[in-house]
From TrEMBL:
Species annotation: Nonomuraea dietziae
Domain Beta-lactamase-related positions: 19-368
Top-level lineage group: Bacteria
UniProt cross-references to InterPro entries, sorted A to Z: Beta-lactam-related (IPR001466), Beta-lactam/transpept-like (IPR012338), Beta-lactamase/esterase (IPR052907)
Official protein name in the record: CubicO group peptidase (Beta-lactamase class C family)
PANTHER family noted in UniProt: BETA-LACTAMASE-RELATED, BETA-LACTAMASE-RELATED DOMAIN-CONTAINING PROTEIN
Pfam families for this protein: Beta-lactamase
Length: 401
């Protein structure tokens, strides 16, 4: 496998692990980018984007739930400007949302996966996720599965419409337009929430994960009980997840799908988190950055994923699930100060402000777990080792004093 790009000698182990991913861990095509103190210290890519086509400097791909980090950032930018109060009721900006026991839902509940709307009960029409108004109206009229604020469960597909509709109502712009105009274009990022048609030829098609011998608890519950939240989440999706290849279509890439629809590469992910690693970098004030990082919701059993998860206001936090059976053992072995988001199959982007670190990893061959899989974790571990961090007894990283 040919690896291209640049890597400072201090971070040589990151390049070594990247090469091992390609030669020993089943990687097909991938990119990794590390930014420290605002400077790019690792920018590597390699493998195949598609059969017979190498992964190039400008190859991009579907990063699934890494998208949630971009959507959450848009909300925090509005909050930092004083235009959005995260502790206010959602109905202040979205009056229709207050029906069926949701009038007390706070904006923060949407960001922390505590809103109680991880799925919809009544069947969605084909292509529903490409119709923003339809999804916003359906969610506004849905009864929550639990009292908002009392539990947390991963809103895998609805998060983008819930948070994105608040962004739309407050800013007067669609989520994709806001992100493009306020984040991607000013920072010069190759990061798309609504991919233009002229960029489609650079997208590396997703290679679905192979079915594991033992399914993660989330998928096992979905197949065992068609009335369960996992089953409704996966099955009532307008065909996005249930139709093979649908998420790789031109229509899917063009949609402003704020939960799982973004298209970018490692450079784009690290570039989005770079300003946050430097204290806000003009995207948010330092005071807002301090609000973005701390864990706000955590549970030994996520009401949807059925494994331990932790979230700040819109971002994943470190969690060590290695004590669980292999199918459920993937978590996020970061530092307690880091925050970001992983995507289905293994992509991940995050920042660690005290370490002045921003990180991005994308790939086309998906893994089977629900967190940062071994390929991505190997890269993260190599970065922290290069920075002089060590593992705590619980498995998370820390910087010795």
């Amino acid at each position: 496998m040919t690896v291209q790009g640049s890597c400072e000698p201090r971070f040589a182990t990151v390049a070594e692990e990247f090469e091992r991913n390609l030669t020993e861990r089943g990687e097909v095509g991938a990119s990794v980018c590390v930014v420290v103190d605002g400077e790019t210290v690792v920018d590597l890519w390699g493998g195949d984007a598609a059969p017979g086509l190498p992964w190039l400097h400008d190859t991009i791909g579907h990063v699934w739930s890494c998208t949630k980090g971009a959507t959450a950032l848009c909300a925090h930018m509005l909050a930092s400007r004083g235009e959005l109060d995260l502790d206010a009721p959602v109905v202040r900006h979205w009056p229709e949302y207050g029906s069926r026991g949701k009038d007390g839902t706070l904006v923060r509940h949407l960001l922390t996966h505590q809103a109680g709307l991880p799925a919809l009960r009544e069947p969605l029409p084909s292509g529903a996720f490409y119709d923003w108004k339809l999804m916003a109206d359906r969610l506004a009229g849905e009864e929550p599965f639990w009292e908002p604020g009392t539990r947390h469960g991963y809103h895998a597909l609805t998060f983008g419409f819930l948070v994105g509709e608040v962004v739309r109502r407050v800013s007067g712009r669609s989520l994709g337009s806001f992100f493009r105009e306020e984040v991607a274009e000013p920072l010069g990022l190759d990061f798309w929430l609504g991919l233009p048609e002229e960029q489609e030829g650079r997208v590396a098609p997703t290679i679905p994960a192979e079915t594991p011998a033992r399914l993660p608890s989330f998928y096992a519950a979905a197949f065992a009980d068609p009335a369960s939240i996992p089953a409704l989440l996966l099955g009532n999706d307008g065909g996005y997840m249930t139709t093979p290849g649908e998420s790789d279509t031109r229509t899917a890439h063009a949609a402003e799908f704020g939960a799982v629809g973004a298209v970018t590469n490692a450079r784009g992910l690290a570039g989005m988190y770079r300003p946050l690693s430097l204290g806000g970098g003009g995207l948010v004030a330092e005071e807002q950055l301090a609000i973005m990082s701390p864990a706000q919701s955590a549970s030994s059993v996520d009401a949807v994923l059925l494994v331990p998860t932790r979230f700040s206001l819109g971002f994943m936090k470190a969690v060590d699930n290695r004590h669980l059976p292999a199918a459920d053992s993937e978590g996020a072995l970061l530092t307690e100060t880091a925050f970001g988001h992983a995507g289905m199959g293994g992509s991940v982007g995050f920042c660690d402000p005290p370490a002045r670190l921003a990180f991005g990893y994308t790939m086309n061959r998906q893994g089977t777990g629900l967190g940062i899989n071994p390929r991505g974790q190997a890269l993260v571990d190599a970065v922290y080792r290069s920075l002089g961090h060590r593992r705590a007894r619980g498995g998370l990283w820390y910087r010795p004093t």
